[in-house]
Amino acid sequence: MSTQIDAYAAVREKLSPGANIYGENSEDFGRAALRWSQYKSPNFIVVVEVATEGDVIETIKYANANQIPFLAYSGGHGAIAGLDNVQKGIQISLVKLDSVEISETGTTATFGGGVLSKRAIDALWKAGKQTVTGSCEVTSLLGPGLGGGYGLLQGKYGLISDQFVSARIVLADGTVKNVSSESNDPDLWWALQGAGHNFGIVMSVTMKIYDVPKDDIWSFESYVYPQDKVEGLYERINTLWPDGSQPSSVINTSVLMHNPGIDAEKPILAFIVVQNGCQPVESIYTKPFRDLGSILTQSGSGAYTDIPGWMELDEKSPVTMKLGLSGIRFPVNVQNYNLQAQREVYELFAKETSEIPELRNSFIMCKGYPVHGVKSVPSESTAFAHRDDNILIAPVITYDNKDNDPELDAKANEFGEKLRRIIFAASGQKELHAYVNYASGGETRENLYGFEPWRLQKLEALKKKYDQEGKFNYYASVL
Protein backbone atom coordinates (compact mmCIF):
# COMPACT_ATOMS: atom_id res chain seq x y z
CA MET A 1 0.00 0.00 0.00
CA SER A 2 2.77 2.45 0.88
CA THR A 3 4.42 1.90 -2.50
CA GLN A 4 1.18 2.76 -4.24
CA ILE A 5 0.63 5.90 -2.15
CA ASP A 6 4.21 7.07 -2.63
CA ALA A 7 4.05 6.54 -6.38
CA TYR A 8 0.64 8.20 -6.58
CA ALA A 9 1.78 11.33 -4.74
CA ALA A 10 5.20 11.64 -6.35
CA VAL A 11 3.89 11.27 -9.89
CA ARG A 12 0.81 13.44 -9.32
CA GLU A 13 2.80 16.58 -8.52
CA LYS A 14 4.70 16.26 -11.81
CA LEU A 15 1.66 15.94 -14.07
CA SER A 16 -0.26 18.51 -16.10
CA PRO A 17 -3.74 19.59 -14.94
CA GLY A 18 -5.37 17.49 -17.66
CA ALA A 19 -3.81 14.22 -16.54
CA ASN A 20 -5.52 11.65 -14.33
CA ILE A 21 -3.91 9.22 -11.94
CA TYR A 22 -5.57 6.19 -10.38
CA GLY A 23 -4.20 4.09 -7.55
CA GLU A 24 -5.07 0.40 -7.50
CA ASN A 25 -7.72 0.96 -4.83
CA SER A 26 -9.42 3.86 -6.59
CA GLU A 27 -12.84 3.61 -8.18
CA ASP A 28 -11.61 4.09 -11.76
CA PHE A 29 -8.53 1.89 -11.59
CA GLY A 30 -10.26 -1.26 -12.87
CA ARG A 31 -11.79 0.56 -15.83
CA ALA A 32 -8.53 2.26 -16.75
CA ALA A 33 -6.45 -0.92 -16.55
CA LEU A 34 -8.94 -3.33 -18.17
CA ARG A 35 -7.55 -5.20 -21.16
CA TRP A 36 -9.13 -7.21 -23.98
CA SER A 37 -7.41 -10.34 -22.65
CA GLN A 38 -6.64 -11.21 -19.05
CA TYR A 39 -4.15 -13.91 -20.06
CA LYS A 40 -0.67 -13.11 -18.73
CA SER A 41 -1.82 -9.55 -18.12
CA PRO A 42 0.45 -6.98 -16.42
CA ASN A 43 0.07 -5.95 -12.80
CA PHE A 44 -0.06 -2.25 -11.92
CA ILE A 45 -0.12 -0.20 -8.75
CA VAL A 46 -0.88 3.06 -10.57
CA VAL A 47 -2.47 4.07 -13.87
CA VAL A 48 -1.43 7.45 -15.26
CA GLU A 49 -3.74 8.82 -17.96
CA VAL A 50 -1.39 11.30 -19.57
CA ALA A 51 -2.59 14.46 -21.28
CA THR A 52 0.71 15.81 -22.63
CA GLU A 53 4.08 14.66 -23.79
CA GLY A 54 5.52 16.12 -20.61
CA ASP A 55 3.32 13.78 -18.58
CA VAL A 56 4.87 10.79 -20.34
CA ILE A 57 8.39 12.10 -19.80
CA GLU A 58 7.86 12.77 -16.10
CA THR A 59 6.21 9.41 -15.53
CA ILE A 60 9.07 7.56 -17.22
CA LYS A 61 11.66 9.52 -15.27
CA TYR A 62 9.92 8.75 -11.99
CA ALA A 63 9.60 5.06 -12.85
CA ASN A 64 13.26 4.82 -13.82
CA ALA A 65 14.44 6.63 -10.69
CA ASN A 66 12.48 4.21 -8.51
CA GLN A 67 13.09 1.06 -10.58
CA ILE A 68 9.39 0.61 -11.31
CA PRO A 69 8.45 -1.09 -14.59
CA PHE A 70 6.11 0.81 -16.90
CA LEU A 71 3.98 -0.08 -19.89
CA ALA A 72 2.16 2.05 -22.45
CA TYR A 73 -1.55 1.48 -23.09
CA SER A 74 -3.63 2.71 -26.01
CA GLY A 75 -6.32 0.26 -27.15
CA GLY A 76 -5.52 -2.43 -24.60
CA HIS A 77 -5.71 -5.30 -27.11
CA GLY A 78 -2.10 -6.43 -26.84
CA ALA A 79 -2.13 -9.96 -25.40
CA ILE A 80 1.09 -11.93 -25.12
CA ALA A 81 3.03 -13.90 -22.54
CA GLY A 82 5.66 -11.49 -21.25
CA LEU A 83 3.31 -8.70 -20.32
CA ASP A 84 2.93 -10.46 -16.98
CA ASN A 85 6.58 -9.64 -16.28
CA VAL A 86 5.30 -6.18 -15.43
CA GLN A 87 4.66 -6.49 -11.69
CA LYS A 88 3.76 -3.58 -9.42
CA GLY A 89 4.22 -1.32 -12.41
CA ILE A 90 2.90 1.94 -13.79
CA GLN A 91 0.52 1.91 -16.74
CA ILE A 92 1.01 4.93 -18.98
CA SER A 93 -2.38 5.34 -20.62
CA LEU A 94 -2.40 7.30 -23.88
CA VAL A 95 -6.19 7.38 -24.31
CA LYS A 96 -6.35 11.18 -23.97
CA LEU A 97 -3.83 11.60 -26.80
CA ASP A 98 -6.42 10.97 -29.50
CA SER A 99 -6.01 14.00 -31.76
CA VAL A 100 -6.35 13.85 -35.55
CA GLU A 101 -4.95 16.81 -37.48
CA ILE A 102 -5.11 16.90 -41.27
CA SER A 103 -2.39 18.90 -43.00
CA GLU A 104 -3.18 21.91 -45.17
CA THR A 105 -2.12 19.95 -48.24
CA GLY A 106 -4.57 17.18 -47.39
CA THR A 107 -1.94 14.52 -48.11
CA THR A 108 -0.99 13.69 -44.52
CA ALA A 109 -2.55 13.62 -41.08
CA THR A 110 -0.97 13.54 -37.63
CA PHE A 111 -2.50 11.13 -35.14
CA GLY A 112 -2.05 11.14 -31.38
CA GLY A 113 -0.48 8.04 -29.89
CA GLY A 114 -3.71 6.90 -28.23
CA VAL A 115 -6.16 7.36 -31.09
CA LEU A 116 -8.42 4.38 -31.76
CA SER A 117 -9.08 3.13 -35.27
CA LYS A 118 -12.72 4.22 -35.30
CA ARG A 119 -11.89 7.77 -34.29
CA ALA A 120 -9.16 7.95 -36.93
CA ILE A 121 -11.45 6.54 -39.63
CA ASP A 122 -14.37 8.83 -38.74
CA ALA A 123 -12.25 11.98 -38.50
CA LEU A 124 -10.70 11.35 -41.91
CA TRP A 125 -14.02 10.35 -43.44
CA LYS A 126 -15.61 13.67 -42.52
CA ALA A 127 -12.88 15.35 -44.55
CA GLY A 128 -13.26 12.99 -47.50
CA LYS A 129 -10.05 11.18 -46.64
CA GLN A 130 -8.94 7.68 -45.68
CA THR A 131 -5.82 5.71 -44.84
CA VAL A 132 -4.89 2.13 -44.01
CA THR A 133 -6.50 0.99 -40.77
CA GLY A 134 -7.22 -2.39 -39.26
CA SER A 135 -10.60 -4.06 -39.50
CA CYS A 136 -11.34 -3.79 -35.76
CA GLU A 137 -12.72 -0.41 -34.68
CA VAL A 138 -11.63 -0.50 -31.05
CA THR A 139 -7.94 -1.30 -31.36
CA SER A 140 -5.60 1.65 -31.48
CA LEU A 141 -4.23 2.83 -34.79
CA LEU A 142 -0.58 2.93 -33.74
CA GLY A 143 -0.42 -0.25 -31.66
CA PRO A 144 -0.90 -2.51 -34.67
CA GLY A 145 0.96 -0.02 -36.87
CA LEU A 146 4.17 -0.37 -34.88
CA GLY A 147 4.04 -4.10 -35.66
CA GLY A 148 3.46 -3.46 -39.37
CA GLY A 149 -0.31 -3.50 -39.28
CA TYR A 150 -2.46 -5.41 -41.76
CA GLY A 151 -5.34 -3.27 -42.98
CA LEU A 152 -8.39 -3.13 -45.19
CA LEU A 153 -6.78 -0.83 -47.76
CA GLN A 154 -3.42 -2.61 -47.80
CA GLY A 155 -4.03 -3.94 -51.31
CA LYS A 156 -3.79 -0.38 -52.59
CA TYR A 157 -1.42 1.33 -50.18
CA GLY A 158 0.48 -1.25 -48.11
CA LEU A 159 0.61 -1.80 -44.37
CA ILE A 160 -0.36 0.76 -41.73
CA SER A 161 3.35 1.35 -41.08
CA ASP A 162 3.95 1.92 -44.79
CA GLN A 163 1.90 5.10 -44.40
CA PHE A 164 4.22 6.53 -41.73
CA VAL A 165 5.90 9.79 -42.72
CA SER A 166 7.37 10.79 -39.36
CA ALA A 167 6.95 10.04 -35.67
CA ARG A 168 7.65 11.66 -32.33
CA ILE A 169 8.82 9.14 -29.76
CA VAL A 170 9.77 9.20 -26.09
CA LEU A 171 12.71 6.88 -25.45
CA ALA A 172 13.47 4.75 -22.41
CA ASP A 173 15.36 7.53 -20.62
CA GLY A 174 12.61 10.11 -21.16
CA THR A 175 14.29 11.93 -24.03
CA VAL A 176 12.28 12.76 -27.14
CA LYS A 177 13.16 12.18 -30.78
CA ASN A 178 11.56 13.18 -34.04
CA VAL A 179 12.26 10.44 -36.54
CA SER A 180 11.58 10.01 -40.22
CA SER A 181 13.25 8.65 -43.33
CA GLU A 182 15.12 11.95 -43.53
CA SER A 183 16.16 12.19 -39.86
CA ASN A 184 19.59 11.45 -38.47
CA ASP A 185 18.26 8.17 -37.04
CA PRO A 186 17.33 6.21 -40.20
CA ASP A 187 17.82 2.86 -38.47
CA LEU A 188 15.42 3.77 -35.67
CA TRP A 189 12.92 4.85 -38.31
CA TRP A 190 13.38 1.47 -40.02
CA ALA A 191 12.74 -0.33 -36.71
CA LEU A 192 9.57 1.64 -35.91
CA GLN A 193 7.97 0.09 -38.99
CA GLY A 194 7.49 -3.44 -37.72
CA ALA A 195 9.19 -3.63 -34.31
CA GLY A 196 8.38 -0.19 -32.94
CA HIS A 197 7.02 -1.28 -29.56
CA ASN A 198 10.59 -2.28 -28.63
CA PHE A 199 11.99 1.23 -28.71
CA GLY A 200 9.75 3.80 -27.07
CA ILE A 201 6.33 5.34 -26.59
CA VAL A 202 5.07 7.06 -29.72
CA MET A 203 3.45 10.40 -28.95
CA SER A 204 2.25 11.00 -32.48
CA VAL A 205 2.76 9.82 -36.01
CA THR A 206 2.21 11.59 -39.31
CA MET A 207 0.77 9.31 -41.98
CA LYS A 208 -0.09 9.49 -45.64
CA ILE A 209 -3.81 9.88 -46.31
CA TYR A 210 -5.81 9.56 -49.51
CA ASP A 211 -8.91 11.03 -51.11
CA VAL A 212 -12.04 8.91 -50.85
CA PRO A 213 -13.03 8.32 -54.50
CA LYS A 214 -16.13 10.15 -55.71
CA ASP A 215 -19.27 8.03 -55.32
CA ASP A 216 -17.20 5.42 -53.49
CA ILE A 217 -19.12 2.24 -52.75
CA TRP A 218 -18.31 -1.00 -50.94
CA SER A 219 -20.39 -4.18 -51.12
CA PHE A 220 -20.36 -7.50 -49.32
CA GLU A 221 -21.86 -10.95 -49.52
CA SER A 222 -21.57 -13.31 -46.56
CA TYR A 223 -22.30 -17.00 -46.11
CA VAL A 224 -22.62 -19.54 -43.32
CA TYR A 225 -21.63 -23.13 -44.09
CA PRO A 226 -21.94 -26.44 -42.24
CA GLN A 227 -19.02 -28.78 -41.61
CA ASP A 228 -19.33 -30.73 -44.88
CA LYS A 229 -18.43 -27.61 -46.89
CA VAL A 230 -14.94 -27.10 -45.42
CA GLU A 231 -12.99 -28.46 -48.39
CA GLY A 232 -15.36 -26.88 -50.90
CA LEU A 233 -15.00 -23.42 -49.40
CA TYR A 234 -11.22 -23.34 -49.31
CA GLU A 235 -10.89 -25.03 -52.70
CA ARG A 236 -12.96 -22.22 -54.20
CA ILE A 237 -10.85 -19.57 -52.47
CA ASN A 238 -7.66 -21.19 -53.79
CA THR A 239 -9.13 -21.35 -57.30
CA LEU A 240 -10.39 -17.77 -57.37
CA TRP A 241 -7.34 -16.15 -55.76
CA PRO A 242 -4.30 -18.44 -56.02
CA ASP A 243 -1.02 -17.25 -54.56
CA GLY A 244 -2.39 -13.95 -53.30
CA SER A 245 -3.62 -12.86 -56.72
CA GLN A 246 -6.91 -11.28 -55.68
CA PRO A 247 -7.44 -7.69 -56.84
CA SER A 248 -6.66 -4.86 -54.44
CA SER A 249 -10.38 -4.10 -54.31
CA VAL A 250 -11.37 -7.51 -52.90
CA ILE A 251 -11.17 -8.76 -49.30
CA ASN A 252 -12.17 -12.18 -48.04
CA THR A 253 -12.29 -13.52 -44.50
CA SER A 254 -13.54 -16.73 -42.94
CA VAL A 255 -14.13 -17.65 -39.31
CA LEU A 256 -14.54 -21.11 -37.80
CA MET A 257 -16.62 -20.85 -34.65
CA HIS A 258 -19.56 -22.11 -32.64
CA ASN A 259 -22.93 -20.45 -33.21
CA PRO A 260 -25.58 -22.33 -31.23
CA GLY A 261 -28.32 -20.34 -32.92
CA ILE A 262 -27.39 -22.08 -36.18
CA ASP A 263 -25.96 -25.41 -34.96
CA ALA A 264 -26.14 -26.33 -31.29
CA GLU A 265 -23.43 -28.98 -31.55
CA LYS A 266 -21.01 -28.55 -34.42
CA PRO A 267 -18.88 -25.53 -35.39
CA ILE A 268 -19.87 -23.57 -38.47
CA LEU A 269 -17.91 -21.58 -41.05
CA ALA A 270 -18.73 -17.92 -41.66
CA PHE A 271 -17.28 -16.43 -44.86
CA ILE A 272 -17.47 -12.92 -46.29
CA VAL A 273 -16.39 -11.34 -49.57
CA VAL A 274 -16.06 -7.55 -49.64
CA GLN A 275 -15.48 -5.57 -52.84
CA ASN A 276 -14.81 -1.91 -53.49
CA GLY A 277 -16.15 -0.04 -56.50
CA CYS A 278 -19.26 -2.01 -57.39
CA GLN A 279 -22.78 -2.77 -56.23
CA PRO A 280 -23.42 -5.65 -55.63
CA VAL A 281 -20.26 -7.79 -55.39
CA GLU A 282 -19.44 -9.08 -58.88
CA SER A 283 -20.90 -12.50 -59.62
CA ILE A 284 -17.48 -13.94 -60.45
CA TYR A 285 -16.75 -13.63 -56.72
CA THR A 286 -20.15 -14.74 -55.42
CA LYS A 287 -21.43 -17.50 -57.72
CA PRO A 288 -18.90 -20.14 -56.58
CA PHE A 289 -19.86 -19.57 -52.95
CA ARG A 290 -23.59 -19.49 -53.64
CA ASP A 291 -23.32 -22.72 -55.60
CA LEU A 292 -21.56 -24.36 -52.65
CA GLY A 293 -24.83 -24.21 -50.72
CA SER A 294 -24.89 -22.08 -47.60
CA ILE A 295 -27.15 -22.22 -44.56
CA LEU A 296 -27.48 -18.44 -44.62
CA THR A 297 -26.57 -15.78 -47.18
CA GLN A 298 -26.62 -12.02 -46.66
CA SER A 299 -25.53 -9.08 -48.79
CA GLY A 300 -25.47 -5.31 -48.80
CA SER A 301 -23.64 -2.15 -49.78
CA GLY A 302 -22.38 0.95 -48.03
CA ALA A 303 -19.28 2.94 -47.19
CA TYR A 304 -15.78 2.00 -46.06
CA THR A 305 -16.88 2.92 -42.55
CA ASP A 306 -19.46 0.09 -42.64
CA ILE A 307 -16.96 -2.73 -43.16
CA PRO A 308 -16.13 -3.40 -39.49
CA GLY A 309 -19.84 -3.91 -38.83
CA TRP A 310 -20.18 -6.35 -41.73
CA MET A 311 -17.24 -8.30 -40.34
CA GLU A 312 -18.63 -8.10 -36.79
CA LEU A 313 -15.52 -6.24 -35.66
CA ASP A 314 -17.16 -2.94 -34.79
CA GLU A 315 -17.36 -1.45 -31.31
CA LYS A 316 -20.67 -3.23 -30.66
CA SER A 317 -19.36 -6.70 -31.42
CA PRO A 318 -18.73 -8.92 -28.35
CA VAL A 319 -15.49 -10.24 -29.86
CA THR A 320 -13.93 -6.76 -29.67
CA MET A 321 -15.14 -5.90 -26.17
CA LYS A 322 -13.20 -6.03 -22.92
CA LEU A 323 -15.31 -8.60 -21.10
CA GLY A 324 -12.74 -9.90 -18.65
CA LEU A 325 -12.01 -13.01 -20.72
CA SER A 326 -8.69 -14.52 -21.69
CA GLY A 327 -7.73 -14.59 -25.37
CA ILE A 328 -4.59 -16.15 -26.83
CA ARG A 329 -3.80 -15.95 -30.55
CA PHE A 330 -1.61 -18.35 -32.53
CA PRO A 331 -0.88 -16.72 -35.90
CA VAL A 332 0.70 -18.43 -38.89
CA ASN A 333 1.06 -17.07 -42.42
CA VAL A 334 0.56 -19.29 -45.47
CA GLN A 335 0.55 -18.89 -49.25
CA ASN A 336 -2.60 -20.90 -50.04
CA TYR A 337 -5.00 -23.09 -48.09
CA ASN A 338 -4.24 -26.79 -47.68
CA LEU A 339 -7.61 -28.54 -47.85
CA GLN A 340 -6.60 -31.53 -45.75
CA ALA A 341 -5.20 -29.23 -43.07
CA GLN A 342 -8.39 -27.16 -43.01
CA ARG A 343 -10.35 -30.37 -42.45
CA GLU A 344 -7.99 -31.51 -39.69
CA VAL A 345 -8.27 -28.11 -38.04
CA TYR A 346 -12.06 -28.31 -38.17
CA GLU A 347 -12.14 -31.78 -36.62
CA LEU A 348 -9.68 -30.87 -33.87
CA PHE A 349 -11.55 -27.65 -33.12
CA ALA A 350 -14.85 -29.55 -32.88
CA LYS A 351 -13.33 -32.25 -30.66
CA GLU A 352 -11.45 -30.00 -28.24
CA THR A 353 -14.24 -27.47 -27.78
CA SER A 354 -16.62 -30.34 -27.05
CA GLU A 355 -14.30 -32.05 -24.56
CA ILE A 356 -13.22 -28.77 -22.94
CA PRO A 357 -16.38 -26.65 -22.93
CA GLU A 358 -14.53 -23.75 -21.28
CA LEU A 359 -12.85 -23.21 -24.68
CA ARG A 360 -16.08 -23.19 -26.68
CA ASN A 361 -15.94 -19.42 -27.34
CA SER A 362 -12.71 -19.86 -29.30
CA PHE A 363 -12.60 -19.22 -33.04
CA ILE A 364 -10.19 -19.33 -35.97
CA MET A 365 -9.73 -16.35 -38.29
CA CYS A 366 -8.51 -16.76 -41.86
CA LYS A 367 -7.74 -13.35 -43.35
CA GLY A 368 -7.41 -13.09 -47.10
CA TYR A 369 -6.58 -9.42 -47.48
CA PRO A 370 -5.16 -8.28 -50.83
CA VAL A 371 -1.37 -8.11 -50.79
CA HIS A 372 -0.33 -6.06 -53.85
CA GLY A 373 0.37 -2.90 -51.87
CA VAL A 374 2.23 -4.82 -49.16
CA LYS A 375 4.49 -6.58 -51.65
CA SER A 376 5.21 -3.38 -53.56
CA VAL A 377 7.35 -2.11 -50.66
CA PRO A 378 10.90 -3.55 -50.62
CA SER A 379 11.18 -6.08 -47.80
CA GLU A 380 14.53 -4.76 -46.58
CA SER A 381 13.22 -1.20 -46.26
CA THR A 382 11.40 -1.81 -42.94
CA ALA A 383 11.54 -4.13 -39.93
CA PHE A 384 8.38 -5.93 -41.07
CA ALA A 385 9.76 -9.18 -42.44
CA HIS A 386 6.81 -11.13 -43.85
CA ARG A 387 5.76 -9.22 -46.95
CA ASP A 388 5.79 -12.25 -49.24
CA ASP A 389 3.03 -14.08 -47.37
CA ASN A 390 -0.55 -14.16 -48.64
CA ILE A 391 -2.92 -15.37 -45.92
CA LEU A 392 -3.01 -14.94 -42.15
CA ILE A 393 -4.57 -17.79 -40.16
CA ALA A 394 -5.00 -17.21 -36.44
CA PRO A 395 -6.65 -19.52 -33.93
CA VAL A 396 -7.98 -17.34 -31.09
CA ILE A 397 -8.46 -19.40 -27.93
CA THR A 398 -11.01 -17.58 -25.80
CA TYR A 399 -12.14 -18.57 -22.31
CA ASP A 400 -13.17 -17.28 -18.91
CA ASN A 401 -10.37 -17.72 -16.39
CA LYS A 402 -11.15 -15.20 -13.69
CA ASP A 403 -9.95 -17.78 -11.15
CA ASN A 404 -6.49 -17.77 -12.80
CA ASP A 405 -6.45 -21.55 -13.17
CA PRO A 406 -2.99 -22.44 -14.59
CA GLU A 407 -4.28 -25.78 -15.88
CA LEU A 408 -6.90 -24.03 -18.02
CA ASP A 409 -4.24 -21.66 -19.39
CA ALA A 410 -2.10 -24.69 -20.22
CA LYS A 411 -4.98 -26.43 -22.01
CA ALA A 412 -5.68 -23.27 -24.02
CA ASN A 413 -2.03 -22.98 -25.06
CA GLU A 414 -1.81 -26.64 -26.00
CA PHE A 415 -4.97 -26.36 -28.09
CA GLY A 416 -3.76 -23.27 -29.94
CA GLU A 417 -0.34 -24.74 -30.64
CA LYS A 418 -1.86 -27.98 -31.95
CA LEU A 419 -3.98 -26.02 -34.41
CA ARG A 420 -1.02 -23.92 -35.54
CA ARG A 421 1.19 -27.00 -35.99
CA ILE A 422 -1.38 -28.61 -38.28
CA ILE A 423 -1.58 -25.50 -40.46
CA PHE A 424 2.17 -24.96 -40.63
CA ALA A 425 3.07 -28.61 -41.25
CA ALA A 426 0.75 -28.70 -44.26
CA SER A 427 1.96 -25.39 -45.69
CA GLY A 428 5.17 -26.80 -47.13
CA GLN A 429 7.06 -23.86 -45.69
CA LYS A 430 10.38 -24.25 -43.88
CA GLU A 431 9.89 -21.11 -41.80
CA LEU A 432 6.95 -20.32 -39.54
CA HIS A 433 6.02 -16.68 -40.03
CA ALA A 434 3.86 -15.19 -37.26
CA TYR A 435 2.20 -11.77 -37.17
CA VAL A 436 3.70 -10.01 -34.16
CA ASN A 437 0.48 -8.18 -33.28
CA TYR A 438 -1.25 -11.54 -32.73
CA ALA A 439 1.68 -13.33 -31.08
CA SER A 440 1.01 -15.64 -28.14
CA GLY A 441 4.51 -15.35 -26.70
CA GLY A 442 5.57 -18.87 -27.62
CA GLU A 443 7.13 -17.77 -30.91
CA THR A 444 10.83 -17.29 -31.59
CA ARG A 445 12.32 -13.96 -32.62
CA GLU A 446 12.76 -15.39 -36.09
CA ASN A 447 9.06 -16.27 -36.31
CA LEU A 448 8.15 -12.66 -35.55
CA TYR A 449 10.95 -10.55 -37.04
CA GLY A 450 12.41 -12.65 -39.84
CA PHE A 451 14.94 -15.42 -40.36
CA GLU A 452 17.57 -13.31 -42.14
CA PRO A 453 20.51 -12.93 -39.72
CA TRP A 454 21.02 -9.30 -40.69
CA ARG A 455 17.53 -8.37 -39.49
CA LEU A 456 18.01 -9.71 -35.99
CA GLN A 457 21.52 -8.30 -35.77
CA LYS A 458 20.25 -4.86 -36.75
CA LEU A 459 17.39 -5.00 -34.24
CA GLU A 460 19.74 -6.20 -31.48
CA ALA A 461 22.15 -3.34 -32.15
CA LEU A 462 19.32 -0.80 -32.11
CA LYS A 463 17.94 -2.26 -28.89
CA LYS A 464 21.32 -1.88 -27.20
CA LYS A 465 21.56 1.69 -28.45
CA TYR A 466 18.08 2.94 -27.58
CA ASP A 467 16.89 0.62 -24.79
CA GLN A 468 19.95 -0.83 -23.15
CA GLU A 469 18.15 -1.60 -19.89
CA GLY A 470 15.21 -3.32 -21.58
CA LYS A 471 12.46 -0.95 -20.45
CA PHE A 472 10.41 -1.94 -23.51
CA ASN A 473 11.04 -5.69 -23.40
CA TYR A 474 7.59 -6.79 -22.27
CA TYR A 475 5.87 -7.14 -25.65
CA ALA A 476 7.66 -9.45 -28.11
CA SER A 477 11.20 -8.31 -27.41
CA VAL A 478 13.66 -8.44 -30.29
CA LEU A 479 16.31 -9.78 -27.88
UniProtKB/TrEMBL annotation:
Coiled coil, from the record: none
GO-annotated molecular function: FAD binding; oxidoreductase activity
Domain FAD-binding PCMH-type: 39-212
Signal peptide segment: none
UniProt KW Nuclease keyword: no
Cofactor or coenzyme needed: FAD
Keywords per UniProt: FAD, Flavoprotein, Oxidoreductase
Pfam family, one: FAD_binding_4
SUPFAM superfamilies, per the entry: FAD-binding/transporter-associated domain-like
Family under the similarity heading: Belongs to the oxygen-dependent FAD-linked oxidoreductase family.
Protein name: FAD-dependent oxygenase, putative
Organism from which the protein derives: Talaromyces marneffei (strain ATCC 18224 / CBS 334.59 / QM 7333) (Penicillium marneffei)
Lineage: Eukaryota, Fungi, Dikarya, Ascomycota, Pezizomycotina
